[in-house]
Amino acid sequence: SLMDATIGRDLQCLGSRFRNADGVAIVASDSRVGGNITFSKQFIADGGVDLIGTTIGGDLNCESGNFINENTNSYAINAERIRIDGDVFLRRDFQAKGKVSFAHAYVARNFEWHHVKSPEKTILDLRSAKIGTLEDDEVSWPKTNNLYLDGFNCDEIRNFTNTESRIAWLRHQPTNQFLPQTYEQLAGILRKMGQEEEAVTVLIEKNREHARFTTIGSPAWWWYEVFGRFIRYGYRP
């Protein structure tokens, strides 16, 4: 436990192993670290890592780290409300079996999620997170129903390829509810990047997705499924 600790410079756990398979392996909630937190070089946490409300003056580096907590409704990494003045590196054989939550987090610079091992075993929660730049790859996305993006916002998506790919990214969210905010947010991000036509495509897709949640024959169904589609919901009549 490092709960509520103050560390002037770095917390380094390179190549180390922490084990509490039935609970939390590391508790560092509400701690203040002036430099970097490093869980890398084949780091293993067999049990949850709790970083709720922690403040990091540098980076959170989990490159090639292994975070394992497959108990029902348990967190591999819980970094809700964390504040990071540098970057987050979840990449290069990073592996998380369980939930990874950065809900309501603030990351000043890059959030890197790519070359992740076994992403099908990960639930990623970025709800209401605010980051500088997102860098990810398609093969590292969690499977459908395991990605939460409601309220997520960033200034830029690095290596943006095409709009269809990003729309597919949104479809990895829970499929049992309509989440219009996530489409609006993505369109806003694309506008900030100067991708106006791509933003319009996302907004058209938002309305097409809305059609799935209307009742046949209702006024909403006639608009979203029939007339709206004909004029592309007013965006490209």
Description:
Helix 2 packs antiparallel against helix 3 and helix 3 runs antiparallel to helix 4 (219-230). The longest helix is centred in the C-terminal third of the chain and has 16 residues, at 196-211. The mean pLDDT is 95. This protein has helices at residues 163-170, 180-192, 196-211, 219-230; strands at residues 6-7, 11-12, 17-27, 32-33, 37-38, 44-50, 55-56, 60-61, 66-68, 75-78, 83-84, 88-91, 95-101, 106-114, 122-125, 130-136, 147-148, 153-157. It is built from four helices and 18 strands. 21% of the residues lie in helices and 32% in strands. Strands 1, 2, 4, 5, 7, 8, 11, 12, 14, 16 and 18 form an eleven-stranded parallel β-sheet that branches. Strands 3, 6, 9, 10, 13, 15 and 17 form a seven-stranded parallel β-sheet that branches. The protein is α/β, with parallel strands linked by helices.
Task: Give the secondary structure arrangement, pairings included.
Elements: E1 6-7, E2 11-12, E3 17-27, E4 32-33, E5 37-38, E6 44-50, E7 55-56, E8 60-61, E9 66-68, E10 75-78, E11 83-84, E12 88-91, E13 95-101, E14 106-114, E15 122-125, E16 130-136, E17 147-148, E18 153-157, H1 163-170, H2 180-192, H3 196-211, H4 219-230
Parallel strand pairs: 1-4, 2-5, 3-6, 4-7, 5-8, 6-9, 6-10, 7-11, 8-12, 9-13, 10-13, 11-14, 12-14, 13-15, 14-16, 15-17, 16-18
